[in-house]
Design brief:
The structure holds two protein chains of two kinds. Chain A is an alpha+beta fold. Chain A is built from 13 helices and eight strands. Chain B is about 20% helix and about 15% strand. Chain B is of the alpha+beta class. Classes of the chains: A alpha+beta, B alpha+beta. The structure holds iron/sulfur cluster (SF4) (2 copies).
Chain lengths: ~350, ~120
């Protein structure tokens, strides 16, 4: 019997994002998966033609809500190196604090959605209850829950006073407690194990060949993490990438769960080491030249190519988001599994489609 | 599911985690970027805000003495507030409320002659 092609998405009850896959199915078993792109394309890169390079900070933040802060950070870091600007130390540590708050809330969001895809509603709600504290921290310190808008070329726009850092630390203790309480369920629950172990296995070689990034790659045993480049203040903080070996959905879940603790630790370290001083330096002139800027987003490496000609508008802005690099893995992970497992495997890559399609 | 049972039981006997929204809204955070307001008395119609606004929702016309703002195109980034040389723009911590009619804000601003030049030199 020839297979039947089933369109999975862009509108599907399990999908938080409009990902579109054409699945070829035979007897409930997936034979092949073909991703289709473009459903939410907004043409943000093209906006660089009519918005000047400073206004583009607010535009790139809107490439993706969940990693808005790190998009702006990558863009600003790229322009800073083009313009020869060195952000002050305090700004570099503040950037780490907000980046890690973003990673925390993104991973909690993902864990919740993943639980939801497995049909584990109570776990989903519990995780999002914890996440709410982080959203509050974002709003109280940066002014908005999602679009933080703290980055400028040459530093950050907001400072943290001692009262705020103290409050962040006490809230983090609560968040940590909440995450710990969920740890046994996430890592050892029978339902979770049954739905994730041995599903969507990706080998180390396949992951490298397909160009996977972030937790996808780390769950296959490759210790790749852009934070090791030491951008912002990561070079002065103590951490090691979380690595797992199995390469299945469970391993990806473990990596992201462990990274929650890592982010909390990084925020604590940064607050402990937060130097005094200015939060930004004045920037004069316009960028010229071309550069590739990279940073680690919750979903993996994000890459910005910026070409400037010394004018007000950039010549070219190209954004390669982590989900774009991770989607090819679906074409090898999905064939051979049952249709009922597709949502779990699909969500295990932590797809962010509005960011992929920009 | 077994590990979840204590949490579920605790939730069952503890206070509600959600708020009955319109009746009891959440406390606002002091630094939230909410509604944008312009103090027409301080504005000198220099147009800096309109030039820096990333969503291009501000229009300043010195000839007609008008400062115009499209709240529905605004992304509340606060860039204009930081750019304004006279501090006439500010952001409240209250978000923009829902409205029935889409309206833009038009302020009539009177700039005393000579004032702009003076402020710029200062
Ligand atoms: S920047 Fe300030 S003073 Fe200048 S036009 Fe805008 S609101 Fe008025
Ligand atoms: S807050 Fe941002 S989007 Fe709104 S008017 Fe000011 S600069 Fe424009």
């Amino acid at each position: 019997m020839a297979g039947t092609v089933i369109p999975f998405g862009p509108q599907h009850p399990v999908l938080p994002e409009p990902l579109h896959l054409n699945l070829k199915i035979e007897d409930e078993i997936v034979i092949s998966a073909t991703p289709a792109f473009g459903y939410v394309h907004r043409g943000l890169e093209k906006l660089a033609d009519i918005r000047d390079f400073r206004q583009m900070i607010q535009v790139v933040e809107r490439v993706c809500g969940i990693c808005s802060m790190i998009h702006a950070l990558t863009y600003c870091q790229g322009l800073e190196s083009l313009m020869g600007v060195e952000p002050p130390p305090r700004a570099r540590f503040l950037r780490v604090i907000w980046s890690e708050l973003h990673r925390l809330h993104s991973h909690l969001l993902w864990l919740g959605l993943f639980a939801d895809a497995m049909g584990f509603e109570s776990l989903f709600m519990q995780l999002w209850k914890v996440r709410e504290r982080i959203m509050d921290m974002n709003e109280a310190t940066a002014g908005n829950r999602v679009i933080l808008s703290v980055n400028v070329i040459g530093g950050v726009r907001r400072d943290l006073d001692p009262g705020q850092t103290g409050w962040i630390l006490s809230e983090l203790a609560e968040v940590e407690k909440g995450i710990k309480a969920m740890g046994r369920t996430i890592l050892h629950d029978y339902t979770v194990q049954k739905r994730t172990r041995g599903k969507g296995v990706l080998s180390r070689e396949q992951a490298l060949e397909l160009g996977c990034v972030g937790p996808m790659l780390r769950s296959c045993g490759v210790a790749q993490d852009m934070r090791l480049l030491g951008y912002a203040a990561y070079g002065e903080l103590d951490f090691a990438p979380v690595v797992e070996r199995d390469g299945d959905c469970y391993a990806r879940c473990r990596v992201r769960f462990a990274e929650l603790g890592q982010s909390i630790d990084l925020i604590r370290q940064s607050i402990g080491k937060l130097p005094a001083g200015d939060i930004s330096v004045p920037v004069k002139g316009r960028p010229e030249g071309e550069i590739v800027a990279r940073a680690e987003q919750p979903r993996g490496e994000c890459l910005y190519y910026i070409k400037a000609n010394g004018g007000k508008f950039l010549d070219r802005l190209r954004i390669r988001t982590p989900t774009f690099a991770n989607i090819p893995a679906l074409t090898v992970m999905l064939p051979g599994i049952e249709l009922a497992d597709v949502p779990v495997v699909l969500l295990s890559i932590d797809p962010c489609v509005s960011c992929t399609e920009r | 599911m077994v590990f979840m049972i204590p949490v579920v039981l605790k939730n069952l006997f503890s206070r509600c985690a959600t708020r009955p929204y319109p009746q009891s809204p959440r406390k606002l955070f002091a630094g939230s970027r909410g509604q944008l307001v312009n103090d027409a008395g301080k504005c000198i119609l220099c147009g800096t805000c309109a030039r820096t606004c990333p969503s291009q929702c501000l229009t300043v016309s010195r000839k007609e003495g008008l400062w115009q703002y499209e709240p529905f195109a605004c992304v509340f980034c606060g860039v204009c507030v930081e750019a304004c040389p006279t501090g006439s723009l500010s952001q409240l911590s209250q978000w923009r409320p829902a409205v029935r009619e889409r309206e833009s804000v038009v302020l009539k601003v009177e700039v005393k002659s000579g004032e702009e030049g003076k402020r710029h030199r200062a």
